[in-house]
Amino acid sequence: MTGMTSTARPLLNRRLAEFGTTIFAEMSALALKTGSINLGQGFPDTDGPEEIREAAVRALRDGRGNQYPPGPGVPELRTAIAAHQQRRYGLSYDPDAEVLVTAGATEAIAAALLALVEPGDEVIALEPYYDSYAACIAMAGGTRVPVTLRPHEGAFRLDLDELRAAVTDRTRLLLINTPHNPTGTVLTREELAAIAELAVERNLLVITDEVYEHLVFDEAEHIPLVTFPGMRERTVSIGSAGKTFSFTGWKVGWVTGTPGLVSAVRSAKQFLTYVASGPFQYAVAEALALPDSYFAAFRADMLAKRDVLATGLAAAGFEVFRPAGTYFVTTDIRPLGPELSQNGDGFAFCRALPELAGVVAIPNAVFYDHREEGAPFVRFAFCKKVSVLEEAVGRLRKAFAG
After folding, report:
1. For the whole prediction, is pTM greater than 0.90?
2. How far apart are CA 285 and CA 179, in angstroms?
3. 175-200 pLDDT, tens digit each
């Protein structure tokens, strides 16, 4: 019959059926509907450096990037990425063969997993994980194997024995995120060394998501995993301009690795966006060459904002895991009591929070396979104006601390 569709099977590919609409879309819509302060989705409420925004305008006006840029990225940006890796970490990359520009880190993750994972391969990811990891592993036909970070002495920590035990003969790849979203954990030199030894011993590939590399606080230090013995030939490193320069809408990310790894990722990437963000690539090339003073001031500004939010959340009655990196604070809602915390159910709490306090946050459980492990944890973003953070914590204190 005309207009009829078969109902023999669902329209959505079964690999994606479990994902639905992202929690970020749901909570951001709730923020708009209720007029709440949105501390859920991780985007700044101010733009990055004016000279970098002007560099994008200049590129547009000069006709640079308005047509398809080169598939691997514009040469100026690939050269700037290589120079950044050399200056910051002493890593030497060939801009022509070992650097690939992507439509943000999200595409880099997708392309890397689609390129390197076969159906049936196991991919170990640190849980809780950024939600696109699970979807991309599924699209590649892989099987995700979560290794859970658990609270210990005020931070979320990796159990290295649990990580070793998770590796099987079917494990293809480790997906490592440090600084870690959403927990704010920064893996230590000792932890990274152990991960590197395991990868070499079991001949595993590694994807490292390092988009928060410039946002580390206190005594923490970001150390790229690729700097450890035996890791250069097996590591795909992912970076991004969005988090470092506060231009998340530009969607400029990158991959660095050996020619073989980058070629494999490029083979998948070319059939995703092909190319993206032409004029912005020229601007990001200039941004990466900013003096060290920019990165130090950016980190200091975010550290001050972290402390405003973390201190305010603690005063409102939350247990706060003060992050060593990223721009998110994870809290435990159970100290608020059974009634206010919705019996420790982060989903119910976050759905009630806009009406209760006029603030939006994200339930960490959405980042877990083991939902019960993440049930009482809720994430707040602090990449906002100080005045916004102060207003938010004032509302939270009024709602929960009287």
Report:
1. yes
2. 23
3. 999 999 999 999 999 999 999 999 99
